[in-house]
Amino acid sequence: MTARKVSARQKAGHPAGEAVRQFTVQADDDGIRLDRWFKRHLPQVGFATVSRWARTGQIRVDGGRVKPDERLAAGQVLRVPPGGDRPGDRGETAALVRRTLSAEDRAAAAAMLIRRTEAALVLNKPPGLATQGGTKTTRHVDGLLDAFAQANEPRPRLVHRLDKDTSGALLVARTPGSAAYFSKRFAGRSAKKIYWALVVGIPQVAQGSIDAPMAKQPGTGGEKMQVDLENGQPARTLYRVVDRAGNSAAWVELQPLTGRTHQLRVHLAAIGHPIVGDGKYGGPEAFLTGSISRKLHLHARRLVIEQPDAKSDGQGEGRLDVTAELPAHFAASMAQLGFDPAASDAAPDEGPPERNREELKQAARQHAKQYRKARRGERHRRGAEPDATGGKQEARRPRGGADRGTDKAMAGKSVRGRRSDKPPSRGKPAADRPARAASGRETPSRNRLKDERPGSGRPTGRADAPAPRKPPGKPADKPTGGRPAPKPGAKPPPRGGRR
């Protein structure tokens, strides 16, 4: 039996006849981790395989070893060994297969397209079409995105969502890198969106903001939201009344500053003016009589967002500003109520300009510096805060050891600016109290001086004479507490205290 010669590549698990692959990192993948690069471009290669290849040195970046968590830079050459890209190879999953769309689906997808750039697709989603699939939802925007994918391009990805009954501008990223870029813009609230809505009634304030926290309504399975001032998440909406049709309906511009589920619908219903056709939050009162459509009258009119610099020369396409036309039922209701779409330019509130990374770092350093300065001043004030008499309070001494006996003496005093539970003493300040004599004799107390005044019932020698002083060396009498004068002819009560 002849022994078969096995090559080193076959020992490493590489099929015979396959060559090593090389890829150049594109600008869209600049800064991405190595394992994330495989998930984008070679999803059939699992993380375990990538880790094994990196550990054994089979994956090289510009000729050097690399770890799965290291980040790649644009222009680097990535060496990938053969294997790991066939269905069932070492238990790895097969490559994702794109859906086959019918001619009707491809026509519907083409009809939604408003703008195409190197980084994004902007669609005008019709009402009644869900953004993503779910239970009993087989036809949706996400399923139609395969119509825009070319053979050598990645599949477009959703960046944000619109409600099923809401129409208007919907942004789709063409590459994974642009999807990450746009997602950060939506999360950072730098993407501006303007909605048009027809509401029931006329808001009393023509222009303002609605600040009402929101949370999921219990018992609805998360399908319905409500205003929750205590436990809700922050939600804020700017609005402006563009025109009105008597007292029955109004045309309103809306700009959400946060992205809560059903935020615009909940906020308008909370101020007593639900969107026309929104029976979920407005009930039967959300429908107008006559020939006004019973569909939801909420439309994403305008979208403004910055685009990434996708070109190789560093010159990006700048800001993406797209306006979506009204659906048929919304346009018919506008015409019947006498509203002119040209009356509004749907200009968003730009707010403060977006700061770059260096400006954010500088602001963070300045905030930390001010915080440390405030804390340093607070530490200095702790042991030197003035009390009610204008002096400085004593600092708290450490417990234990020789200072433990001072705890009782410190009781009742205010320490570090905190008010003590024990009420303060009502005696006079130390500066106003009578001082002791040099011989150690105490001065007469206030009660004794009161008892020895004329008319107090005690003999004084003269009606206006002062109380006689005790000879030196004898202690002063103990205060009697101001006993009342004895009745005439009665025996005087005995006086207490030692003589």
Largest sheet: 10 strands, mixed
Q: What is the ordering of alpha helices and beta strands?
A: HEHHEEEHEEHEEHEEEEEEHHEEHHHH
Q: What is the CA-CA span between the terminal residues?
A: 132 Å
Could you name the ranges where pLDDT drops below 50 across 5 or more consecutive residues? 1-13, 86-95, 310-316, 401-418, 435-440, 448-452
Mean pLDDT: 77
| Rg from Cα | 42 Å
Strand content: 15-25%
Helix and strand composition category: alpha+beta
Q: State the shape.
A: flat
3D architecture notes:
With 499 residues, the protein is of the alpha+beta class. It has twelve helices and 16 strands. A hairpin with a 2-residue loop joins β2 and β3 (64-65). The longest helix has 26 residues, at 357-382. It is flat, with a radius of gyration of 42 Å.
Topology summary:
Blueprint: H1 8-11, E1 21-24, H2 34-41, H3 47-55, E2 60-61, E3 64-65, E4 77-80, H4 103-112, E5 113-116, E6 120-125, H5 141-144, E7 157-158, E8 167-173, H6 176-187, E9 192-200, E10 207-211, E11 214-216, E12 225-227, E13 236-245, E14 249-256, H7 263-270, H8 279-282, E15 298-306, E16 319-323, H9 328-337, H10 357-382, H11 407-410, H12 446-451
Parallel strand pairs: 8-15
Antiparallel strand pairs: 1-4, 2-3, 2-4, 5-6, 6-8, 7-8, 9-14, 9-15, 10-13, 11-12, 13-14, 15-16
Describe the structure using short key phrases:
disordered N terminus; 21% helix; 12 helices; 10-stranded mixed beta sheet; alpha+beta; 4-stranded antiparallel beta sheet; 16 strands; 499 residues
Would you summarize the structure shown here?
With 499 residues, this protein is of the alpha+beta class.
